Amino acid sequence: MDEIKVANLGQAASAACSMATNFLAPVKTERQIYENSMLEDDPNANSVVSTSQEDRTVPRWGPNHKGAQELANLYSTGKRTQECICVGICITLIIVNSIFILVRLRLENLSSIAIAAFCGIVTADFGSGLVHWAADTWGSVELPILGKNFLRPFREHHIDPTSITRHDFIETNGDNFMVTIPFLYKLTWDFLTLPESEIQQKFVWTCYWFLLAIFVAMTNQIHKWSHTYFGLPSWVIWLQEHRVILPRKHHRVHHVAPHETYFCITTGWLNWPLEQLRFWYILEIIIEKATGCKPRADDLKWAQKRS
């Protein structure tokens, strides 16, 4: 009887291990990463493994890729102006709201604000994934206004991932700062117009929105750091290694062609659970059936402009 129980326990343990192995299997293998993504810690290399004769003669990724060069040249003076204005307005609103919040900060609120901060960073991570997925997967650079100004950087980034490391603060963060302006303006308006009792009543909620705006504003800077393999400050590396912000190795999974997973780029905390739920895949199936549009068709078109 005992032998039967031991055998059953052994079978159960084996089945559990098998399930865990399948469930926790890496999204991309090391070989997939090496063969289908640019080695960013060695920017002169295209791939560890050359999978075709074309790979040996024509850049598959990087600044010498013809598609990447064409996309980089679409960055306009008008776009630069928009980014400068947005960065200036956003920083001003952040400073103003910081002052309003700091003068009202109370010790008894700190635990609630810590929870608000956690919720804010998780929301920002999901929001970054949703926007990143939408921009990577749908639309075209040829779209009026939206294409060249907002989708172009996503196309360039996939075929020249290190281009973001050559962008200055304005180009890196202009669009994310722009997104936060309406929220920060609303907070400023509330601080200036609402009675103090109402401000205190919704103070934690205000902190949530403010911290969410900060995390959203910083998301592309965090993203840039995840592509920076040389010269990062030690405190940034510490935050990456402790998974407070998006780690470099973690983000490499997204850059394995065809770039269909791990879209969250603030912390990356939600990437694994969303992948297990097949969240993005299900959304793509629904949209493709409803519209007939193929996911990442424009992304593939630019990737193929190698010569």
TrEMBL record:
- Keywords associated with the record: Membrane, Transmembrane, Transmembrane helix
Q: Keyword S-adenosyl-L-methionine on this protein?
A: no
Keyword Disulfide bond part of the UniProt annotation: no
Which PROSITE patterns does the entry mention?
PROKAR_LIPOPROTEIN
Any one GO MF annotation of this record: oxidoreductase activity
Tell me the membrane topology, using the record's own terms. Answer: Multi-pass membrane protein
Q: Where is the Lipid desaturase domain?
A: 121-298
Per the record, the similarity remark reads: Belongs to the fatty acid desaturase CarF family.
What is the protein name for this chain? Lipid desaturase domain-containing protein
Q: Which organism is it from?
A: Frieseomelitta varia
